């Protein structure tokens, strides 16, 4: 039978996308938009957060509201996924420590080559235009090189990336934090990124 008409083949093409992040506020909304874009492409998604590592007194002092409604990520989530999106707000041009702590626990995946060849994409948030949008994504991406993953950038693929008053870059979706809420351009870029990740995962899976 031609595989195009084989129902089992079509089921196989429904890829699984993990959207993994650290943070709160706009980074959570970016994660949700990326998941939404992947779902529009027909993917099954999981939205997961990494465990908070900041001291409790600091969390209270800074009025941080963790996303407790979203489950914590596990290594099994990483194994489950055909494609992964990883996000963090910038911390002085780098990923947040909590995300780094989680990624440091994935050594057993590395030793078994369980993420090798999987597509991965990155997203971030920074308060100012030059506050780390690009460097944070670049520093997160070094993880992918060590695991042999396939980095899926946004590229200059949609018109919204040419708007200079919003977040987003060819490296990945981002939020310009001087605005409290995501603007429509940022939402469109994030949804496109999720859709593109699902498309690449689908091609690799097929």
What does this structure look like?
Belongs to the WrbA family. Belongs to the SsuE family. Isf subfamily. Residues 16-197 form the Flavodoxin-like domain. It comes from Candidatus Aramenus sulfurataquae. With 206 residues, the protein is an alpha/beta fold. The protein has one domain (15-205): Flavodoxin domain (Rossmann fold, 3-Layer(aba) Sandwich). The protein has helices at residues 7-12, 26-40, 56-61, 75-80, 97-103, 107-112, 133-147, 184-205, and strands spanning 16-21, 44-49, 83-89, 119-126, 150-151, 174-176. Strands 1, 2, 3, 4, 5 and 6 form a six-stranded parallel β-sheet that branches. Helix 2 packs across helix 8. The model has no long low-confidence stretch (mean pLDDT 91).
Q: How would you sum up this structure in a few lines?
A:
This protein is an alpha/beta fold. Helices cover 40% and strands 16% of the residues. The chain has helices spanning 7-12, 26-40, 56-61, 75-80, 97-103, 107-112, 133-147, 184-205; strands spanning 16-21, 44-49, 83-89, 119-126, 150-151, 174-176.
């Amino acid at each position: 039978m031609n595989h195009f008409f084989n129902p089992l083949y079509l089921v196989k093409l429904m890829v699984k996308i993990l959207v993994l992040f650290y943070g709160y506020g706009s980074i959570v909304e970016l994660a949700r938009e990326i998941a939404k874009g992947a779902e529009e492409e027909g993917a099954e998604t999981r939205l997961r957060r990494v465990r908070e590592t900041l001291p409790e007194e600091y969390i209270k002092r800074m009025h941080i509201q963790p996303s407790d409604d979203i489950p914590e990520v596990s290594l099994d989530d990483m194994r489950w996924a055909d494609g992964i999106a990883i996000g963090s707000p910038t911390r002085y041009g780098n990923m947040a420590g909590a995300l780094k702590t989680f990624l440091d626990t994935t050594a057993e995946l590395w030793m078994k080559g369980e993420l090798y060849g999987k597509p991965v994409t990155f997203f971030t948030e920074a308060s100012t235009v030059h506050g780390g949008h690009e460097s944070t994504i670049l520093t997160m991406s070094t993880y992918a090189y060590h695991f042999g993953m396939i980095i899926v950038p946004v590229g200059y693929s949609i018109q919204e990336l040419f708007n200079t008053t919003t977040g987003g870059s060819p490296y990945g979706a981002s939020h310009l934090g001087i605005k409290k809420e995501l603007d429509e351009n940022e939402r469109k870029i994030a949804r496109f990124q999720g859709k593109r990740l699902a498309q690449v995962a689908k091609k690799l899976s097929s």
